[in-house]
Write a structure and sequence with these properties.
By secondary structure, the protein is of the alpha/beta class. The chain has two domains: about 150 residues, Rossmann fold (3-Layer(aba) Sandwich); about 110 residues, 2-Layer Sandwich (Hypothetical Protein, Haloacid Dehalogenase-like Hydrolase, Chain: A, domain 2), CATH 3.30.1240.10. Strands 8-7-6-9-11-10 form a six-stranded mixed beta sheet. A five-stranded parallel beta sheet has the order 2-1-12-13-14. Strand 12, helix 7 and strand 13 form a beta-alpha-beta unit. Helix 1 packs parallel to helix 9.
Length: about 270
């Protein structure tokens, strides 16, 4: 039997309006009571996922920023924080400058941007259509010179948002080509996330599983976007929701129903006979 369930949040267990359905909550609570470990694995800063973890009410930890952090808010344990070095951050900023695009820089408890649109729009520029209002968030700071942020402590993620998909993918490819210390992946149709090269959702899930004495073949992973690919490939059973990007469905072991049809919950009921 699978002992650990690792799941992406946006587009996977959250519905298209940004809510965590009662069907998901009920199944996860049942599995947790059976001793199955559950861990949300998000591209967001960990604290921005806390509203959903509170709704689950199973005391689980969370992996944030695509695998850069692992924290349990209920025990106060912060297991790791994997920061980007200053030189790589500056190289990333240089690429953004070359493409003429603003960016966001995330630390464990702040986000910085040189764009008033990003400052005012926040996560809603990415989670288009979400209606759920969050109570947990990080402070956003608008700066005149984005290079001044390079000295900030614990920079764990950089982000570029642009509604021209081909353009944003060109930026992704340039970062991956020109900065070997970093890795850029698409986390939403209009967004790329940049982390340290050795940071990924898959690596973080495996590290957490090792802490628990759980083997890779005992893990189920669910996702919908390119940044979930490492997790899908690392798990014993990698599952893409039906609404996932084609690149993820091509690599998944199986495809379940969509996020709006509670596909994750339906598959878990079938697997665990609950």
């Amino acid at each position: 039997m699978y002992k650990l369930i690792a799941t992406d949040c946006d587009g996977t267990i959250l519905d298209s309006e940004g809510f965590l359905p009662t069907e998901i909550i009920s199944v996860f609570r049942q599995l947790s009571s059976m001793g199955i470990r559950i861990i949300p694995v998000t591209g967001r800063n960990d604290i921005i996922a806390k509203d959903y973890i509170d709704e689950l009410d199973i005391g689980c930890p969370v992996i944030g920023c695509n695998g850069a952090t692992l924290v349990n808010f209920y025990t106060g344990e912060r297991f790791f924080t994997k920061s980007i070095d200053k030189t790589s951050v500056i190289k990333f900023m240089d690429i953004c400058k070359g493409f003429g695009v603003p960016c966001k820089i995330f630390t464990t408890d702040r986000q910085y941007t040189d764009s008033r649109e990003f400052y005012e729009g926040g996560i809603n520029l990415i989670t288009v259509g979400y209606k759920k209002k969050l109570t947990n968030y990080i402070k956003t700071l608008l700066v005149d010179d984005i290079y001044s942020v390079a000295d900030a402590e614990n920079i764990i993620k950089c982000v570029v948002v642009n509604n021209d998909v081909d353009f944003v993918l060109r930026i992704r490819d340039a970062i991956n080509r020109e900065i070997p210390e970093l890795k850029a992946v698409q986390s939403n149709w209009n967004c790329i996330d940049i982390n340290r090269r050795d940071v990924s959702k898959g690596a973080a899930v495996l590290e957490y599983a090792e802490m628990l004495g759980i083997k890779p073949h005992e893990i189920i992973a669910f996702g919908d976007s390119e940044n979930d690919l490492s997790m899908i490939e690392a798990a014993g059973l990698g599952v893409a929701v039906e609404n996932a990007d084609d690149c993820l469905k091509a690599k998944a072991d199986i495809v379940c129903g969509t996020n709006d049809n509670f596909g994750v919950a339906a598959l878990l009921k079938e697997i665990y006979k609950i």
